[in-house]
Amino acid sequence: MSARIIDGKTISADLRGKVTDAVHRLRRDRGLVPGLAVVLVGGNSASKVYVRNKSKAVTEAGLQSFDQHLPENVSEAELLDLIGLLNADEKVNGILVQLPLPPQIDADKIIAAIDPDKDVDGFHPLNAGRLASGLPGLAPCTALGCVRLAKAVHTSLAGLEAVVIGRSNIVGKPVAQLLLAENATVTIAHSKTLDLPSVCARADLLVAAMGRPEMVRGGWIKPGATVIDVGINRIAGESGKEAKKPRIVGDVAYGEAKEIAGAITPVPGGVGPMTIACLLLNTLHAACMQNGLPAPKI
Ligand code: GUN
Asked: What DSSP assignment string belongs to 86-118?
């Protein structure tokens, strides 16, 4: 039987609607309008598209947008100065520095300079530590999106065998921490894991976040499992008689996997749209925290 498709577009639209409502209430009842500053350095075309989409979503949700575009050759010191100004600006509740940054800038140094309470990407080491310690803080948006998609299928993740493939600070590690906080039994697999297919085969919940096009095959998946595919890989078009256009694929061989899994996210239209929705949610939470208000339960 073919798997249930976990529709990230619908689930993210629902979340964005709820954030918009909460932002409206915050403005009406407290006169507060959460603000997000997105900092883009240089002209990386993928980054420009991301930033444009983020800004549009921010405005649509009723948040204030404070976008900053700096030239490719900006110095690290100049970028640090801008972070300092944004940290001090009360209207700015969230700061996101779009990655990657040009080679003259140390991204770790920039992330560490952001006020952890405004770190809506959840990349600051203090927020990573808070997440690992089970303390309240801001968690990375894609990881939050993955867990929300899993919870759209399972009312509780407690006791599930979860396997996360990939150990990045942006997705793999925080997803594993969030699943642990949901009481799943979590394994983190990676490029050095021995016999990856048999590790995957025990997963009730499989999160693929290693950035390898279609690496997880249908035969690796436990029948009925929930599969969350974080990969966004652009595959070049094939030449020859049956020429194919370039296409976007995930880290999971979708055509095979959907015949075995119980539920699966498509690529595109699965995890991708959740990231921006969770960024809006993090900005709302940051604004509430900074003003001594409880975070709305969304
Ligand atoms: N570049 C690609 N994805 C992201 C993201 O989620 N946050 C930041 N800051 N940069 C990115």
From this structure: HHH-TT--EEEE-S---TTS-HHHHHHHS-GGG
**Which atom of ligand 1 lies nearest, measured to the CA of 275?**
6
Based on the residue annotation, tell me whether 121 is a catalytic residue of this protein.
yes
Atom of ligand 1 minimally distant from the CA of 47: 1
CATH number (3.30.530.80, 3.40.50.720, 3.40.50.300, 3.40.640.10) of 141-267 reads 3.40.50.720
Atom 9 in ligand 1: residue holding the nearest Cα? 98
Active site residue 54: yes
Domain boundaries, the chain: 26-125+274-290, 141-267
Same fold, 26-125+274-290 and 141-267: yes
Is the pLDDT at 237 greater than 90, yes or no? Answer: no
Distance CA 103, CA 190 (A): 27
What pLDDT digit, counting tens, does each position of 139-178 carry? 999 999 999 999 999 999 999 999 999 999 999 999 999 9
Distances (CA, A) of 80 to 102, 117, 155, 280: 14, 17, 43, 24
Does 243 have pLDDT greater than 70? Answer: no
Query: For residue 2, how far is its CA from the centre of ligand 1 (angstroms)?
Result: 33
Please choose from 95, 118, 121 the residue to mutate so as to test ligand 1's pocket, defined by most ligand atoms within 8 A of CB.
121
Cα-Cα end-to-end distance for the chain: 33
Instruction: Note the pLDDT tens digit of each residue in 76-94.
Output: 999 999 999 999 999 999 9
Active-site residue (options: 115, 117, 119, 121): 121
Of the candidate CATH numbers 1.10.287.110, 3.40.50.1240, 3.40.640.10, 3.40.50.10860, the domain formed by 26-125+274-290 belongs to 3.40.50.10860
Name 40's bridge partners: 69
Whether pTM exceeds 0.70: yes
Spell out which residues line ligand 1, taking CB within 6 angstroms. 50, 96-99, 121, 141, 275
204 pLDDT exceeds 90?
A: yes
**Per-residue pLDDT at 241:** 58
